[in-house]
Specification:
With 339 residues, the chain is α/β, with parallel strands linked by helices. Helices cover 40% and strands 14% of the residues. The chain has a single domain, classed as NADP-dependent oxidoreductase domain (TIM Barrel, Alpha-Beta Barrel). InterPro entries: AKR, AKR_Detox_Biosynth, NAD(P)_OxRdtase_dom_sf, NADP_OxRdtase_dom.
Length: 339
Amino acid sequence: MEYVQLGNSGLKVSRLCLGTMNMGSKEWKPWIFNEKESEPIIRHAIDHGVNFIDLADFYSYGAGEEVVCNVLNRIGQRDKLIVTTKVGYQMNDDINAQGHSRQHIMNSIDASLKRMKMDYVDIYMLHFFDVNTPIEETMCALNDIVRSGKARYIGVSTMYTWQLAKIIQVCDQNGWVKPINMQLQYNCAYREEEREMIPYCQDQGIGVSVFSPLARGILTNDMQSNRNKTDFFTAEMYNDKASFDISTSVARVAQRHNVAPAQVAQAWVLSKQYVSSMLVGADTPEQFNSALAALEMNLDQDDIFELERNYTPCDIINDYTAGNRIPREARLPKGIYAK
């Protein structure tokens, strides 16, 4: 396993991060694994050097934190793990059980730690940018949580670059702790964050962790999987010709190297030096091995061009632009793939 410092912090994390959205309760979504089903995957990841674990209170409405941390507390060493969780999405029918108000953040960190049976979380993350709460209120609450010892660091996820700039500005003005990690969606089929967000994070010394390296499954070229047939986000975000053409290119490169398409898609993400860590949401230990192999895979210039030639600009994918896509036209193949 490779380890890197997360942004300008002194925290070292594995380049593979265990994504856990698929662990918790099947009552939430049909493709979720219960604790018994989740344990072999978690154990396999830890046995292969993963120390970075990604959670969110919203996953299975809290059951995800319980399931994953029951396993971690049983088989792992807490002081060797970097555990994150997120706050923001609505957890129940209480009008205040959502967003990034001080009320909800303070209630949520205590509820998460109780479910996790832990004294602290390593990185406490905003799940999105709450446009309805003053950013000063949100960041002051997160600063207080770090000062209290309930979190060691803070992070953010899925927002516009100007929104992250507001967060950094208010933290600088008040001497509050700043985010050390930006978690964003990034893969061969969605690269809009290369334009502003990733360069801004590099400039500000914020680590970049990436989720959905397989574009919610389409880059595996297995559209009949349970996830692809039941996760409506897949169709909402990647149901266009360019995405399917990119998926075909991934398959072509995989065929050349005699490996699975998933490994190629993951290797492309890991080839980007600005990516600190890549989330892996595996359904089996064998699927996790694909990401381990991707760490060692070297893609040449012909491979990279084939994987990138179909990409054209699209609308930003976040909470504010769901479903907004523009027509995209691909470039023609060249080099070895033009034959």
